[in-house]
Design goal:
mainly beta; four-stranded mixed beta sheet; elongated; 1 helix; five-stranded mixed beta sheet
């Protein structure tokens, strides 16, 4: 009787999908899109990726996001794009052996520059240029950093150690303003303010 019960249990498992040794779903193509076609420096835009299998069905999956240039635009692991500086960039989403791309042009915003801090303890870009009364916005990641300016006339207040936030400073005096993250030696940048 026991062998018969075991056979019935095995048959039920196979019929109900209990056998997980079958082939996994393969992604044939990925389409990446943006809700807005015009993206300016400082914008944050949530990108969308859709994976399709070989017969045209949508596949539920997790995407790996990447950017061709952190200097132009950064992208998070959830597809949130931050436009850093004017230029062209390609954003990619990969899953299941396939990759989809989206080419974007980031347009300049005269009075705003954005500095990000990707892994590696660097300010990206190293140098930003704004007009007098322009603003620089620092995008701080999970790893804590600070922004300590070289002491000179017209320099704004330092940014003390912070993480997971955005801090802006407005520059009302023309000149070049170097700064460092004193928590991570060698991590430097500068703001050029033109008259």
């Amino acid at each position: 009787m026991r062998p018969l019960v075991s056979a019935l249990v095995c048959a039920a498992l196979v019929a109900c999908g209990g056998d997980s040794s079958g082939p996994s779903v393969r992604v044939a193509s990925i389409f990446v899109s943006t809700p807005q076609q015009s993206i300016a420096v400082g914008d944050k835009v949530q990108l969308t990726a859709v994976a399709i299998d070989s017969v045209g069905n949508t596949v539920s999956t997790t995407f790996q996001w990447s950017t061709s240039s952190n200097v132009v635009a950064a992208v998070s692991n959830t597809g949130l794009l931050t436009a850093v500086t004017a230029g062209n960039v390609t954003i990619s989403a990969s899953a299941g052996g396939a990759t989809g791309t989206l080419g974007l042009t980031i347009r300049a915003t005269a009075n705003l520059a954005v500095v990000t801090m990707p892994p590696g303890d660097v300010f990206t870009p190293f140098q930003v240029t704004i007009p007098v009364a322009g603003t620089v916005r620092w995008e701080f990641p999970q790893r804590a950093h600070n922004v300590i300016f070289e002491k000179k006339a017209g320099v704004p207040a330092d940014i003390q150690q912070v993480a997971n936030t955005t801090v802006s400073r407005t520059f009302n005096t023309a000149g070049t303003f170097p700064y460092d993250c004193t928590l991570h030696p060698g991590m430097s940048g500068e703001v050029v303010v033109r008259p």
